[in-house]
Design a protein that fits this description.
single chain, 15 helices, binds 6-O-phosphono-beta-D-galactopyranose
Length: about 475
């Protein structure tokens, strides 16, 4: 990859930290997920193991960062837990304990020359705001977010150069609770979802403006869950359906990158009886556009208008029809490195803005044997995707960096389990809460270390 490419890894506070109610912290929306995003929501937070313990990064961060440094990381993407800073979101003063914790983490990263890249909110809205204000449906949540964002952008101005506003902001379309803290719906469900979407986009644009005002050196990006919808067949109906499904993702990047709503949303709102409540300054605030396009990429999807095919797709994470040309992971996620190259090209074509790959990785069951894991399957997945990314760079796409999901085993977001592992470092923790918490290097740890030191993967007979 080009000189100065930012190689590293990514994780989220709610999936790694643990210490869920320590030093003033309160619950976030992630703590109310019983079995991850796909399970029920329990606003009273009963049970919900293992999210609460994560993998104890709160206490292990020094050891973990040392291991990231050993792999040669240039950047570590992490999130600040909003609830460590403003436990309910409504306090007028920040919790100093929370600020000091992240201050120590950033210092530790800098000690090894690792740049922190911080997501302001990775499914971590204070649960209080979801329960009392229905999350982003209310402007009160926008104000709470502004208070929080202002605090951390100011406080960490000297220590953090790279920021992201909301993780996978388009998840609002499949899980409004995780994405935007929405618990209750109006009679017209679409009205609630789109009002919350507007308010969240506003909050994001506000943070971009504030970040630019206080720090000309910083770069702040958006983050979308990418992955193209292919038409299942070349029937024109399937092709058009795929276009519309893709709009559900691009709407979010279109607004954040171009600074205005795209043409196609107005008809959609009209057809669905949606009227967005806006204040006079809203459209002006949305004009504060991001510096880079952050993406997660795990899979592609297929759209079909055939009712039989649609029936088969029920229950899938994205209700995608199975692509017969692709293998799938143990959790049914299609493996499509070419789709990654396609996505990078397509997004660059659409926006001509640098892209930061903020998540890409392989969830699998790992077996710890003699203190290590032989995760050839993970290496294969990552290798094919990194090669696809290199090809996209050769195609002319500007890519800033790649943070693998994830350096460290952690709690899965969509299923809430430890069994689905992504890490290059094995953490001895099981779903029932047992385990020593000890860290072990997997084969992928050594493999990724070499990728970073070679600045990529050499093609047969070539140097990168
Ligand atoms: C993304 C989320 C992450 C992460 C990842 C893997 O959608 O941003 O938080 O968990 O997906 O997904 P999962 O953990 O559900 O396998």
């Amino acid at each position: 990859m080009k000189k100065g490419f930012l190689w590293g890894g990514a994780a989220a506070a709610n999936q790694i930290e643990g210490a869920v109610l320590e030093n003033g912290k309160q619950y976030s929306v992630s703590d109310a997920l019983i079995h991850g995003m796909k399970g029920e929501i329990d606003p009273d937070v009963r049970g919900c193991y293992p999210t609460h313990r994560g993998v104890d990064f709160y206490y292990h961060y020094k050891e973990d960062i040392r291991l990231f440094a050993e792999m040669g990381f240039k950047v570590f993407r992490m999130s600040i837990a909003w609830t460590r800073i403003y436990p309910t979101g409504m306090e007028t003063e920040p919790n100093q304990n929370g600020l000091q914790f992240y201050d120590r983490v950033f210092d530790e990263l800098h000690k090894y020359g690792i740049e922190p890249l911080v997501t302001l909110c990775h499914y971590e809205m204070p649960l209080y705001l979801a329960k009392h204000y229905n999350g982003f449906e209310s402007r009160a949540t926008v104000e709470a977010f502004q208070r929080y964002a202002r605090t951390v952008l100011d406080y960490f101005k000297e220590k953090v150069k790279y920021w992201v506003t909301f993780n996978e902001i388009n998840v609002m379309m499949i899980s409004p609770f995780c994405g935007g803290g929405v618990i209750r719906y109006r009679e017209n469900r679409a009205q609630t979802i789109w009002q919350a979407t507007h308010n969240q986009l506003l909050a994001s644009a506000w943070a971009v403006r504030y970040c630019h005002e206080i720090n000309a050196e910083a770069q702040i990006g958006c983050m979308i869950a990418s992955g193209p919808w292919y038409p299942f067949t070349c029937r024109p109906e399937d092709v058009f359906l795929a276009l519309k499904k893709n709009w559900q993702t691009y709407l979010f990047s279109d607004v954040q990158v171009r600074g205005e709503y795209p043409f196609y949303i107005y008809k959609y709102w009209k057809d669905h009886g949606v009227t967005i409540q806006m204040e006079e300054e809203d459209l002006g605030i949305l004009k504060n556009t991001v510096d880079f396009v952050g993406i997660s990429y795990y899979q592609s999807r297929c759209a079909s208008t055939d009712p039989e095919e649609q029936e088969k797709a029920q229950g899938n994470l994205f209700q995608s029809v199975r692509n017969p040309y692709l293998n799938i992971t143990d959790w049914g996620w299609p493996i499509d490195p070419k789709g990654f190259r396609y996505t990078l090209n397509m997004l660059y074509d659409r926006y001509q803005k640098p892209i930061f790959v903020l998540e890409n990785g392989f969830g699998a069951v790992d077996v710890l044997e003699n203190g290590t894991v032989h995760d050839t399957y993970r290496i294969e997945y990552l290798k094919s995707h990194i090669v696809a990314m290199q090809e996209a760079e050769e195609d002319g796409v500007e890519i800033m960096g790649y943070t693998v999901w994830t350096p460290l085993d952690l709690v899965s977001f969509s299923t809430g389990e430890m069994k689905k592992r992504y890490g290059m470092i094995y953490v001895d923790k099981k779903d029932d809460g047992s385990g020593s918490g000890k860290r072990y290097k997997k084969d992928s740890f050594y493999w990724y270390k070499k990728v970073i030191s070679d600045n990529g993967i050499a093609k047969e007979g070539e140097h990168v």
